[in-house]
Amino acid sequence: MAGNKGRGRAAYTFNIEAVGFSKGEKLPDVVLKPPPLFPDTDYKPVPLKTGEGEEYMLALKQELRETMKRMPYFIETPEERQDIERYSKRYMKVYKEEWIPDWRRLPREMMPRNKCKKAGPKPKKAKDAGKGTSLTNTADVLKKIEELEKRDDGEKSDEENEDKEGSKEKSKEGDDDDDDDAAEQEEYDEEEQEEENDYINSYFEDGDDFGADSDDNMDEATY
Amino acid sequence: MTQAEIKLCSLLLQEHFGEIVEKIGVHLIRTGSQPLRVIAHDTGTSLDQVKKALCVLIQHNLVSYQVHKRGVVEYEAQCSRVLRMLRYPRYIYTTKTLYSDTGELIVEELLLNGKLTMSAVVKKVADRLTETMEDGKTMDYAEVSNTFVRLADTHFVQRCPSVPTTENSDPGPPPPAPTLVINEKDMYLVPKLSLIGKGKRRRSSDEDAAGEPKAKRPKHTTDNKEPIPDDGIYWQANLDRFHQHFRDQAIVSAVANRMDQTSSEIVRTMLRMSEITTSSSAPFTQPLSSNEIFRSLPVGYNISKQVLDQYLTLLADDPLEFVGKSGDSGGGMYVINLHKALASLATATLESVVQERFGSRCARIFRLVLQKKHLEQKQVEDFAMIPAKEAKDMLYKMLSENFMSLQVGCQ
């Protein structure tokens, strides 16, 4: 009701004094454009703290960044395969130390399952089917089936030997044997090598020398 | 975790471990605890890469695992621990000031690798120090070991929980994941090792270029010869202890600024005496008697007992209440009020931020509201003695930047 006081005249519906303008005072201009993107600030920020300690820590941080990139914990993203493999790429690669985690401290599912393209002493496949934690990738499954078919032919006795080795390695008692360590390194190496070249290892026939080293050669039957 | 924190974690992980680890890590931070297959499925990464990434994250104490029912193992990321990576240079520099270069490198190696056995640390550090020394000189393992022991004694490094040694008579199948345990009293126990040797200078012929097999087994050339004496005993940097040190430093420098050098030395002595006896989250230190403090003052300080007592009384009477008196036995029992001290320091920081951003009059209003908790518009104008329009303007500015908030009360 009080708002109807000056009919036709502009009147505020609230007490103008509450906002801070006394009666009759000139109101500020109507703003017709958005506020500036970078308004002037009255108070500039305080300069950064510098000193011997801060300089040292800055240098340390730069060093740490560089060092971490060279450590084995830094996992590179695999690059897209290029059309032509450059000869020089192979020799410009920075070599990194391998790191093997202490498997005793990790859940068992962490251990990488060997795809076994090359000779691998561990027959994870036999155990895989049972545990059901094998790779979900259909392409991998098809490959495995192919290889299992090829291997079934003559190598049953080898598989038995490798089963024993595999169970020994799974028991996780005490220190790892050198064999296991070497085999685990081979696993990692294989995975790295798989990404490196376009050649499928199983088709590679080197003649006499290849495969003669290890007894557990599960390579494909020679034609 | 806020979006900004998650973004920061993402950048840190990417910078230090690469994109794959970053993807897995951020996914875990966002979604909480998850098993392996779900992570692989949700992130669209191959199982193989997820495993590698998780191994790296677990090694660096950024992810932990837990066995749930039906043998499912779930992984959880510790977002706050990821953010600590920002402080690595500060931890390393602090160790340098306390234990010089040897200590600095020990902590650096532990932070870079997550966890290491003592023998591994000693060897790496000795090699690195030998690199920097003049030709012909090498760093002895014994010296590095001594520094390591000192770090363990002052709790700057601690043992990681380890796999429990089970007897072989365990009939059932091995559990899907080991439950790591650590005994409270073993946490800083250094194993008795006789590490004899000197650091090796890295020569180009030893490096990888010569033969790949040699470089692929840098760890095993020594392993093949002798077994690792402290196998399975891993050490990590104890970040909480560093934070405690930073807290002590902040309190001591605050006292030095407010009073004088001698008072700050007294407070530093009291804090040093309580280092190991008081837990890091305690509200105040264990009471220390004036006699004890007098005995523990640093050697160079020769102030008399009466002067010490006067200083202690002054400190206890100070309105900031950093030091409190809790009794009269032993010449007076004094405690340091840690929580109160930290609260005052935090308040001072906040007030300084407001002052630098909005000006001293806004800072006055801010201090007022902080002190009185709730104030009405009119009361602010009266107490701060600032004209109404300006007071409204300032209040609104602080409100718009979230330094103040409104609370509607009933009239």
UniProtKB/TrEMBL annotation, chain A:
Keyword Magnesium: no
Keywords: DNA-directed RNA polymerase, Nucleus, Transcription
Regions crossing the membrane: none
Gene expressing this chain: POLR3G
Subcellular location(s) per record: Nucleus
Sequence ranges of Acidic residues compositional bias: 174-198, 205-223
Family (UniProt): Belongs to the eukaryotic RPC7 RNA polymerase subunit family.
Pfam families tied to this protein: RNA_pol_3_Rpc31
Source organism superkingdom: Eukaryota
Biased composition annotated in UniProt, kind: Basic residues: 114-125
Annotated organism of origin: Macaca mulatta (Rhesus macaque)
Any one of the GO BP annotations: transcription by RNA polymerase III
Biased composition regions of type Basic and acidic residues, renumbered to the chain: 141-154, 164-173
Annotated protein name in UniProt: DNA-directed RNA polymerase III subunit RPC7
UniProtKB/TrEMBL annotation, chain B:
InterPro entries linked: POLR3C_WHD (IPR055207), RNA_pol_III_RPC82-rel_HTH (IPR013197), RNA_pol_III_Rpc82_C (IPR008806), RPC3 (IPR039748), WH-like_DNA-bd_sf (IPR036388)
Entry-linked Gene3D superfamilies: Winged helix-like DNA-binding domain superfamily/Winged helix DNA-binding domain
DNA-directed RNA polymerase III subunit RPC3 winged-helix domain span: 350-407
Principal location class: nucleus
Assigned keywords, A-Z: DNA-directed RNA polymerase, Nucleus, Transcription
GO terms for MF: single-stranded DNA binding
GO biological process, one term: DNA-templated transcription
Location of the RNA polymerase III subunit RPC82-related helix-turn-helix domain: 7-66
Top-level taxonomic group: Eukaryota
GO cellular component: RNA polymerase III complex
Domain RNA polymerase III Rpc82 C -terminal: 146-345
Places the protein is found: Nucleus
Any one Pfam family match given in the protein's UniProt record, by short name: HTH_9
Basic and acidic residues compositional bias, start-end: 211-228
Region of interest (Disordered), ranges: 161-181, 197-230
Function in brief: DNA-dependent RNA polymerase catalyzes the transcription of DNA into RNA using the four ribonucleoside triphosphates as substrates. Specific peripheric component of RNA polymerase III (Pol III) which synthesizes small non-coding RNAs including 5S rRNA, snRNAs, tRNAs and miRNAs from at least 500 distinct genomic loci. Part of POLR3C/RPC3-POLR3F/RPC6-POLR3G/RPC7 heterotrimer, coordinates the dynamics of Pol III stalk and clamp modules during the transition from apo to elongation state. Pol III plays a key role in sensing and limiting infection by intracellular bacteria and DNA viruses.
Family as reported in the entry's similarity comment: Belongs to the eukaryotic RPC3/POLR3C RNA polymerase subunit family.
Quaternary structure, from the entry: Component of the RNA polymerase III (Pol III) complex consisting of 17 subunits. Component of the RNA polymerase III complex consisting of 17 subunits: a ten-subunit horseshoe-shaped catalytic core composed of POLR3A/RPC1, POLR3B/RPC2, POLR1C/RPAC1, POLR1D/RPAC2, POLR3K/RPC10, POLR2E/RPABC1, POLR2F/RPABC2, POLR2H/RPABC3, POLR2K/RPABC4 and POLR2L/RPABC5; a mobile stalk composed of two subunits POLR3H/RPC8 and CRCP/RPC9, protruding from the core and functioning primarily in transcription initiation; and additional subunits homologous to general transcription factors of the RNA polymerase II machinery, POLR3C/RPC3-POLR3F/RPC6-POLR3G/RPC7 heterotrimer required for transcription initiation and POLR3D/RPC4-POLR3E/RPC5 heterodimer involved in both transcription initiation and termination.
Protein name per UniProt: DNA-directed RNA polymerase III subunit RPC3
